Amino acid sequence: MSANPARLDAEIAVLKQRLEEAEDMRRAITSGEVDAFVIGDGESSRKVLLLAGAYQRYRQVVERMQQGAVTVSVSGDVLFANQRFSDMLGVPISKLFAAPLEAYVTAPDRARLASFLLVAARNSAVEVHFARHDGASLLARVALAAFADGYLTLLITDLGPLHRLNDAGDALNVIHDALGALAQTQGLDATARKSVDAIGAQAKRLAVLLDAVLEATPAAAVAAQPMSESPPTLSR
Amino acid sequence: MNDSNEKWELRLYTAGQTPKSVAALANLKRVCEEHLAGHYSIEVIDLMKNPRLAKEDEIIAIPTLVRKIPAPLRKIIGDLSNTERALVGLQLRPRS
After folding, report:
1. Is B66:B49 a contact under the CB 8 Å cutoff?
2. In degrees, to the nearest 5, what angle opens at C-alpha A231 toward C-alphas A228 and A234?
3. Which residues in chain B touch residue A63, judged by CB atoms under 8 angstroms apart?
4. Rounded Cα gap, residues A18 and A26, in angstroms
5. How far is Cα B64 from Cα A28, in angstroms, rounded to an integer?
6. Cβ atoms within 10 A of the Cβ of B62, count?
7. Which terminus of chain A is more solvent-facing, meaning fewer CB atoms within 10 Å of its CB: N or C?
8. What digits encode the pLDDT tens for the residues B75-91?
9. What value, to the nearest 5°, has the Cα angle with vertex A141 and ends A136 and A143?
């Protein structure tokens, strides 16, 4: 049986490439350049094995938390983003890596974010408007959670719900004042006065409920923290 | 520097935000900006979310970079911290 030389050459080329890949993998593993492996042969049994088990639990928390989390390089390139941040912007996670974080901030706020990233220290924060994919603007607080190995991990809190709650509080105050003026009006008949009292009671109830919602809103807790854009000591 | 106008299509397989995955993306972006500015796209595939996607490019170790275009397909395993090795792997520099 005689071998086809062209076919042999092709097979040798494939084997050579596989050998190079195997050698590259050996080098990468022994030099500590990988930290996860894909295990399992079947479609359904395939999963990722992380070399550090505790890290996986931390990661799951970050992935599922209700605040946006994003890791950027010092130059602002997006290196990681969680699902919440992706949802905030309306941009798929896989697309978020294509541009620096600044690109997702409205033009007037970009310089402020850039200078914040340059000097930010742990727990310092800045408020900026993000530009959503649908064209809407989203006011958020960007806080530095960690800085290590040249990467900044930022927590992004959507301040929209907080502002809407504050707006609702303002509207209730207007209603409360108007009802007070109405109650002082002479000549109100019994039915009208009863209605004013009923509306007043419901307005008070709404105010109590609003306070409770405000207290339970994560953005309110974040907004209550002191904000410093230019701290006296730098973390790096 | 890449002289061709062909747009490079690169795919980086990661395991979320593991230190090596984050480092690989940062190193890849730096190499691309220095040698392929304006002529590349990077697709990041998080295998933590969908391990089944490892099958297409037969990924075993993470992070792994796959050069889809230009052909032939090339794989580089690791965090790309060795720039010289990354350039050789991408065939942006001849093997010495």
Report:
1. no
2. 135
3. 16
4. 12
5. 10
6. 31
7. N
8. 999 999 999 989 988 88
9. 140
